[in-house]
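quick one, 305 residues, struct below
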Amino acid sequence: MNTPLRITAFTAGLAAAFGLALGVGHATGSGPSPKPATTAHGGHGGPGGHGGHGGEPTDGGAEHLPGGLQVSERGYTLSVENPFVTAGSPTDLRFRILGADGKPVTAYQQQHEKDLHLIVAPRDLSTFQHLHPTLAADGTWSARTAVPAAGAYRVFADFTPAGASEGLTLGADLHAAGDLRPAPLPETGRTVTVDGYTVTLGGDLTPGRSGALTLSVSKDGKPVTDLQPYLGAYGHLVALRAGDLAYLHVHPDTGTPGPEIGFTATAPSTGSYRLFLDFKHQDTVRTAAFTVTTDGAAAPDGHQH
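---
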Protein backbone atom coordinates (compact mmCIF):
# COMPACT_ATOMS: atom_id res chain seq x y z
CA MET A 1 0.00 0.00 0.00
CA ASN A 2 1.46 3.35 -1.02
CA THR A 3 -0.25 5.54 1.52
CA PRO A 4 -0.47 4.77 5.25
CA LEU A 5 -3.86 4.89 6.92
CA ARG A 6 -3.88 7.94 9.13
CA ILE A 7 -5.80 8.71 12.26
CA THR A 8 -5.87 12.19 13.77
CA ALA A 9 -6.31 12.67 17.50
CA PHE A 10 -8.61 15.70 17.78
CA THR A 11 -7.02 17.35 20.75
CA ALA A 12 -3.48 17.16 19.41
CA GLY A 13 -4.01 17.47 15.66
CA LEU A 14 -1.38 14.81 15.03
CA ALA A 15 -1.58 12.18 12.27
CA ALA A 16 -1.05 8.61 13.42
CA ALA A 17 0.47 6.04 11.08
CA PHE A 18 -1.65 3.21 9.77
CA GLY A 19 -1.19 0.23 12.04
CA LEU A 20 -3.57 -1.70 14.38
CA ALA A 21 -6.48 0.40 15.48
CA LEU A 22 -7.16 0.96 19.08
CA GLY A 23 -8.77 4.19 20.18
CA VAL A 24 -7.30 5.15 23.51
CA GLY A 25 -7.26 8.24 25.73
CA HIS A 26 -5.68 8.62 29.16
CA ALA A 27 -7.74 8.68 32.35
CA THR A 28 -6.74 11.33 34.86
CA GLY A 29 -7.63 12.14 38.42
CA SER A 30 -9.31 9.89 40.97
CA GLY A 31 -12.74 8.99 42.18
CA PRO A 32 -15.52 6.78 40.86
CA SER A 33 -15.80 8.46 37.47
CA PRO A 34 -12.36 9.58 36.26
CA LYS A 35 -12.39 11.54 33.02
CA PRO A 36 -9.91 10.31 30.43
CA ALA A 37 -8.11 13.03 28.54
CA THR A 38 -7.45 12.59 24.85
CA THR A 39 -3.79 12.22 24.02
CA ALA A 40 -1.38 13.10 21.28
CA HIS A 41 -0.39 9.47 20.88
CA GLY A 42 -0.79 7.86 17.50
CA GLY A 43 -0.89 4.59 19.37
CA HIS A 44 0.45 3.00 22.51
CA GLY A 45 3.96 3.96 21.57
CA GLY A 46 3.36 7.68 21.70
CA PRO A 47 3.76 10.44 19.15
CA GLY A 48 6.23 10.06 16.36
CA GLY A 49 6.14 6.29 16.17
CA HIS A 50 5.33 3.98 13.31
CA GLY A 51 2.99 1.06 13.04
CA GLY A 52 0.05 0.95 15.41
CA HIS A 53 1.57 3.41 17.81
CA GLY A 54 3.21 6.36 16.28
CA GLY A 55 3.11 9.30 13.96
CA GLU A 56 3.85 9.72 10.30
CA PRO A 57 7.09 7.96 9.32
CA THR A 58 9.77 10.26 7.97
CA ASP A 59 11.92 7.93 5.93
CA GLY A 60 11.19 5.67 2.99
CA GLY A 61 11.03 1.97 2.24
CA ALA A 62 9.35 -0.28 4.77
CA GLU A 63 8.56 2.70 7.01
CA HIS A 64 5.68 3.50 4.67
CA LEU A 65 3.99 0.15 5.25
CA PRO A 66 1.04 -0.04 7.62
CA GLY A 67 1.73 -1.55 11.01
CA GLY A 68 1.33 -5.27 11.60
CA LEU A 69 2.30 -6.36 8.10
CA GLN A 70 5.86 -7.28 9.08
CA VAL A 71 7.25 -9.78 11.57
CA SER A 72 10.44 -7.72 11.86
CA GLU A 73 10.91 -3.97 11.80
CA ARG A 74 13.46 -1.41 13.02
CA GLY A 75 15.62 -4.14 14.52
CA TYR A 76 12.83 -5.83 16.49
CA THR A 77 11.32 -9.23 15.66
CA LEU A 78 8.16 -10.93 16.88
CA SER A 79 8.97 -14.60 17.56
CA VAL A 80 5.99 -16.87 18.28
CA GLU A 81 7.06 -20.01 20.13
CA ASN A 82 4.47 -22.31 18.53
CA PRO A 83 2.46 -20.86 15.63
CA PHE A 84 0.35 -24.04 15.37
CA VAL A 85 -2.66 -24.50 17.65
CA THR A 86 -5.89 -26.50 17.70
CA ALA A 87 -9.15 -24.64 17.24
CA GLY A 88 -11.33 -24.59 20.34
CA SER A 89 -8.60 -25.83 22.68
CA PRO A 90 -7.24 -23.45 25.34
CA THR A 91 -3.54 -22.83 24.86
CA ASP A 92 -0.78 -20.67 26.26
CA LEU A 93 0.22 -18.41 23.41
CA ARG A 94 3.90 -17.70 24.05
CA PHE A 95 6.13 -15.27 22.18
CA ARG A 96 9.13 -13.00 22.54
CA ILE A 97 10.19 -9.65 21.14
CA LEU A 98 13.79 -9.99 19.98
CA GLY A 99 16.13 -7.03 19.66
CA ALA A 100 18.72 -6.40 16.96
CA ASP A 101 21.19 -8.51 18.97
CA GLY A 102 18.83 -11.49 18.89
CA LYS A 103 18.18 -11.31 22.63
CA PRO A 104 14.68 -11.02 24.11
CA VAL A 105 13.54 -7.55 25.12
CA THR A 106 12.72 -7.53 28.84
CA ALA A 107 11.93 -3.85 29.52
CA TYR A 108 9.11 -1.82 28.02
CA GLN A 109 7.47 1.57 28.36
CA GLN A 110 3.97 1.22 29.75
CA GLN A 111 1.35 2.68 27.43
CA HIS A 112 -2.32 2.84 28.37
CA GLU A 113 -1.77 0.84 31.54
CA LYS A 114 0.01 -2.09 29.84
CA ASP A 115 3.54 -2.87 28.62
CA LEU A 116 2.23 -4.67 25.53
CA HIS A 117 -1.12 -5.10 23.83
CA LEU A 118 -1.82 -8.28 21.86
CA ILE A 119 -4.48 -8.63 19.15
CA VAL A 120 -5.52 -11.94 17.60
CA ALA A 121 -7.79 -11.96 14.54
CA PRO A 122 -8.57 -14.53 11.82
CA ARG A 123 -7.97 -13.74 8.17
CA ASP A 124 -11.73 -13.58 7.56
CA LEU A 125 -12.04 -10.99 10.39
CA SER A 126 -15.00 -12.83 11.88
CA THR A 127 -13.68 -12.58 15.45
CA PHE A 128 -11.39 -10.38 17.51
CA GLN A 129 -9.40 -10.79 20.72
CA HIS A 130 -7.60 -8.02 22.61
CA LEU A 131 -5.31 -9.73 25.11
CA HIS A 132 -2.89 -8.53 27.76
CA PRO A 133 -0.19 -11.19 28.20
CA THR A 134 2.18 -11.49 31.15
CA LEU A 135 5.95 -11.07 30.87
CA ALA A 136 8.44 -13.52 32.41
CA ALA A 137 11.91 -12.48 33.56
CA ASP A 138 13.50 -14.12 30.50
CA GLY A 139 11.49 -11.94 28.10
CA THR A 140 8.82 -14.51 27.22
CA TRP A 141 5.27 -13.24 26.99
CA SER A 142 2.33 -15.60 27.51
CA ALA A 143 -1.44 -15.31 27.20
CA ARG A 144 -4.05 -17.99 27.84
CA THR A 145 -6.50 -18.05 24.97
CA ALA A 146 -8.40 -20.22 22.51
CA VAL A 147 -9.17 -19.46 18.89
CA PRO A 148 -12.78 -20.37 18.05
CA ALA A 149 -12.38 -21.90 14.60
CA ALA A 150 -9.84 -23.48 12.28
CA GLY A 151 -7.96 -21.32 9.82
CA ALA A 152 -5.24 -18.71 9.47
CA TYR A 153 -4.92 -16.00 12.12
CA ARG A 154 -2.77 -12.92 12.57
CA VAL A 155 -1.14 -12.05 15.88
CA PHE A 156 -0.25 -8.39 16.47
CA ALA A 157 2.11 -7.19 19.22
CA ASP A 158 1.77 -3.48 19.98
CA PHE A 159 4.53 -2.11 22.24
CA THR A 160 7.25 0.44 22.96
CA PRO A 161 10.65 -0.84 24.15
CA ALA A 162 12.19 0.91 27.15
CA GLY A 163 14.21 3.91 26.03
CA ALA A 164 12.62 4.04 22.57
CA SER A 165 11.17 7.30 21.32
CA GLU A 166 8.40 5.59 19.39
CA GLY A 167 6.38 2.38 19.41
CA LEU A 168 5.65 -0.15 16.73
CA THR A 169 3.32 -2.99 15.83
CA LEU A 170 4.66 -6.34 14.62
CA GLY A 171 2.56 -9.14 13.16
CA ALA A 172 2.99 -12.90 12.77
CA ASP A 173 0.85 -15.75 11.47
CA LEU A 174 -0.93 -18.27 13.68
CA HIS A 175 -2.42 -21.48 12.26
CA ALA A 176 -5.35 -23.27 13.88
CA ALA A 177 -6.00 -26.90 12.98
CA GLY A 178 -9.54 -28.23 12.77
CA ASP A 179 -12.57 -28.33 10.51
CA LEU A 180 -12.04 -25.31 8.28
CA ARG A 181 -15.20 -23.59 7.08
CA PRO A 182 -14.25 -20.44 5.14
CA ALA A 183 -16.72 -17.59 5.52
CA PRO A 184 -17.18 -14.27 3.74
CA LEU A 185 -16.57 -10.98 5.52
CA PRO A 186 -19.35 -10.52 8.12
CA GLU A 187 -22.06 -8.11 7.01
CA THR A 188 -23.44 -5.46 9.34
CA GLY A 189 -25.42 -2.30 9.04
CA ARG A 190 -24.85 1.00 10.77
CA THR A 191 -26.31 -0.43 13.96
CA VAL A 192 -25.26 -3.58 15.78
CA THR A 193 -26.35 -5.09 19.08
CA VAL A 194 -24.19 -6.82 21.66
CA ASP A 195 -25.40 -8.10 25.05
CA GLY A 196 -28.46 -5.85 24.93
CA TYR A 197 -26.48 -2.73 23.98
CA THR A 198 -27.11 -0.91 20.72
CA VAL A 199 -24.12 0.71 19.05
CA THR A 200 -24.63 2.99 16.06
CA LEU A 201 -21.90 4.06 13.66
CA GLY A 202 -21.98 7.50 12.07
CA GLY A 203 -19.59 9.13 9.60
CA ASP A 204 -17.64 7.99 6.56
CA LEU A 205 -14.35 6.40 5.59
CA THR A 206 -13.03 8.11 2.48
CA PRO A 207 -9.68 7.27 0.84
CA GLY A 208 -7.20 10.12 1.11
CA ARG A 209 -9.47 12.44 3.08
CA SER A 210 -9.93 12.84 6.81
CA GLY A 211 -13.39 12.02 8.11
CA ALA A 212 -15.16 11.83 11.45
CA LEU A 213 -16.50 8.56 12.85
CA THR A 214 -18.96 8.58 15.73
CA LEU A 215 -20.05 5.54 17.72
CA SER A 216 -23.09 5.97 19.96
CA VAL A 217 -23.97 3.52 22.74
CA SER A 218 -27.47 2.99 24.12
CA LYS A 219 -29.37 0.37 26.10
CA ASP A 220 -33.11 -0.24 26.28
CA GLY A 221 -33.63 2.79 24.07
CA LYS A 222 -31.75 5.14 26.41
CA PRO A 223 -28.31 6.70 25.78
CA VAL A 224 -25.52 5.32 27.96
CA THR A 225 -23.86 8.31 29.60
CA ASP A 226 -21.79 6.54 32.25
CA LEU A 227 -19.29 4.51 30.25
CA GLN A 228 -16.30 3.43 32.34
CA PRO A 229 -12.65 3.95 31.44
CA TYR A 230 -11.02 0.83 30.04
CA LEU A 231 -7.23 0.93 29.81
CA GLY A 232 -7.45 4.68 30.32
CA ALA A 233 -10.11 5.45 27.72
CA TYR A 234 -13.87 5.47 27.18
CA GLY A 235 -13.47 3.78 23.80
CA HIS A 236 -10.98 1.66 21.87
CA LEU A 237 -11.44 1.39 18.11
CA VAL A 238 -9.50 -1.24 16.20
CA ALA A 239 -9.61 -1.19 12.41
CA LEU A 240 -8.29 -4.00 10.22
CA ARG A 241 -8.29 -3.85 6.43
CA ALA A 242 -9.79 -6.88 4.72
CA GLY A 243 -7.33 -8.69 2.48
CA ASP A 244 -4.04 -8.05 4.26
CA LEU A 245 -5.17 -7.22 7.83
CA ALA A 246 -3.22 -3.97 7.91
CA TYR A 247 -3.56 -2.71 11.46
CA LEU A 248 -4.66 0.73 12.59
CA HIS A 249 -4.53 2.27 16.05
CA VAL A 250 -6.80 5.25 16.67
CA HIS A 251 -7.76 7.55 19.53
CA PRO A 252 -11.11 9.06 20.44
CA ASP A 253 -11.71 12.76 19.83
CA THR A 254 -13.86 13.10 22.91
CA GLY A 255 -13.20 12.48 26.60
CA THR A 256 -16.79 12.20 27.80
CA PRO A 257 -18.36 9.01 29.23
CA GLY A 258 -20.89 8.64 26.43
CA PRO A 259 -23.13 8.19 24.73
CA GLU A 260 -20.99 9.25 21.76
CA ILE A 261 -17.33 8.43 21.16
CA GLY A 262 -15.74 10.29 18.25
CA PHE A 263 -12.76 9.36 16.08
CA THR A 264 -11.09 10.97 13.05
CA ALA A 265 -9.83 8.64 10.32
CA THR A 266 -8.40 8.60 6.81
CA ALA A 267 -8.56 5.35 4.85
CA PRO A 268 -5.48 4.47 2.75
CA SER A 269 -7.37 2.76 -0.06
CA THR A 270 -10.69 1.61 -1.37
CA GLY A 271 -11.93 -1.65 0.05
CA SER A 272 -13.61 -3.12 3.11
CA TYR A 273 -12.63 -2.66 6.74
CA ARG A 274 -13.66 -4.23 10.01
CA LEU A 275 -14.07 -1.85 12.94
CA PHE A 276 -14.01 -3.26 16.48
CA LEU A 277 -15.15 -0.97 19.29
CA ASP A 278 -14.32 -1.97 22.87
CA PHE A 279 -16.37 -0.18 25.53
CA LYS A 280 -16.88 -0.79 29.25
CA HIS A 281 -20.14 -0.45 31.17
CA GLN A 282 -21.24 -1.93 34.49
CA ASP A 283 -17.76 -3.40 34.95
CA THR A 284 -17.90 -5.48 31.75
CA VAL A 285 -16.00 -4.89 28.51
CA ARG A 286 -17.97 -5.54 25.33
CA THR A 287 -17.02 -5.39 21.66
CA ALA A 288 -19.20 -4.10 18.84
CA ALA A 289 -18.00 -4.93 15.31
CA PHE A 290 -18.86 -3.23 12.01
CA THR A 291 -18.02 -3.89 8.37
CA VAL A 292 -17.65 -0.73 6.29
CA THR A 293 -16.33 0.25 2.89
CA THR A 294 -14.18 3.27 2.18
CA ASP A 295 -16.98 5.22 0.53
CA GLY A 296 -18.67 5.32 3.93
CA ALA A 297 -21.38 2.80 3.07
CA ALA A 298 -21.94 -0.08 5.44
CA ALA A 299 -22.80 -3.58 4.37
CA PRO A 300 -26.54 -4.41 4.00
CA ASP A 301 -28.48 -3.49 7.11
CA GLY A 302 -28.51 -6.07 9.84
CA HIS A 303 -27.67 -6.77 13.45
CA GLN A 304 -24.64 -8.53 14.83
CA HIS A 305 -25.05 -10.50 18.02
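Residues 1-62, 300-305 have pLDDT under 50 and may be disordered.
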